[in-house]
Amino acid sequence: MIKVFLLDDEKLALQSLRLLITRYIPELEIVGESQFPEEAIKEIQELKPQILFTDIRMPGMTGIELLLHLQNWNGSVIFTTAYSDYSIRALRLGALDYLLKPIDPNELKQAIERWKEKIAEEKPDYSQLAESLAEKNRRNLRLEIKVNEKRFYVPVSDIVYIEGDRNYSRIYFANKTTQYVSKTMRHYEELLDFKPFMRIHTSYLVNLDFADRIMAGNVLVLKDETELQISRDKKESLIHFLQNPENF
């Protein structure tokens, strides 16, 4: 049995998650649950569940802040939330998982399968991840890349741009290396949907920290002199960002 702990300030949300787990994933054993983050800290450290399901937006303490207080626990976290904002999209970049409410049974099952695949890997440094999930530190986030059944994580600040190639993408890094991966451009556009990243063309998603200038012919020149085509409908927005660097 896989031991889990449920945390949500809404009683109905706890009841709903408990019902889903009982009905669809009997291999999970609910060892405890709580509506109060402060009280849950001690229980989690005593009960030592393998997985913590926690809401993010709770009175007094967010689910992300909670991670900073779990010093004597090395389990895994799956966030549950009704909000799909920057912080939520950033969670998987930090090697954490999340489920959007109302939770779909199939998505719950998939989250557990992802957990099983990663359980043998080194646990994330929750204190570091919690800090990096703040939007002001978004450049510290790490992107998970899977190649030949192996996963590794790279700082998003090391990504210069991503080039789409039908159902694949090629990632270009600051150290001049590249990685060809079986993920679509749309996949990375959704994950990196925050500044300084911008999709400037059907084929290019660019880290504007590496942008240098725009040339005639709708061409973006990077600091290493790489030239990338700009779509006509993206040029105005790109110029605005480059003229206002404080925006990113």
Taking all Cα atoms into account, the compactness measure Rg is 20 Å
Structural class: alpha/beta
Biggest β-sheet strands, sense, barrel = 5 strands, parallel
The CATH superfamily title of the largest domain:
Response regulator
How does the SSE layout of this entry go?
Blueprint lengths: L1 E6 L3 H14 L3 E7 L2 H11 L3 E5 L7 H5 L8 E6 L4 H6 L5 E4 L4 H14 L7 H7 L9 E6 L2 E6 L3 E7 L2 E6 L4 E4 L3 H7 L5 E5 L2 E4 L3 E5 L3 E4 L4 E3 L2 H12 L5
Parallel strand pairs: 1-2, 1-3, 3-4, 4-5
Antiparallel strand pairs: 6-7, 8-9, 8-12, 9-10, 11-12, 13-14, 14-15
What does this structure look like?
This protein has 248 residues and is of the alpha/beta class. It folds into two domains: 2-132, Rossmann fold; 154-247, LytTr DNA-binding domain (OB fold (Dihydrolipoamide Acetyltransferase, E2P)), CATH 2.40.50.1020. The protein is built from eight helices and 15 strands. The chain has helices at residues 11-24, 37-47, 63-67, 86-91, 105-118, 126-132, 185-191, 232-243; strands at residues 2-7, 28-34, 51-55, 76-81, 97-100, 142-147, 150-155, 159-165, 168-173, 178-181, 197-201, 204-207, 211-215, 219-222, 227-229. The strands form four sheets. Strands 2-1-3-4-5 form a five-stranded parallel sheet, sandwiched between helices. Strand 8 and strand 9 (168-173) form a beta hairpin. The relative contact order is 0.09. The mean pLDDT is 85.
Briefly say what this structure is.
By secondary structure, this protein is of the alpha/beta class.
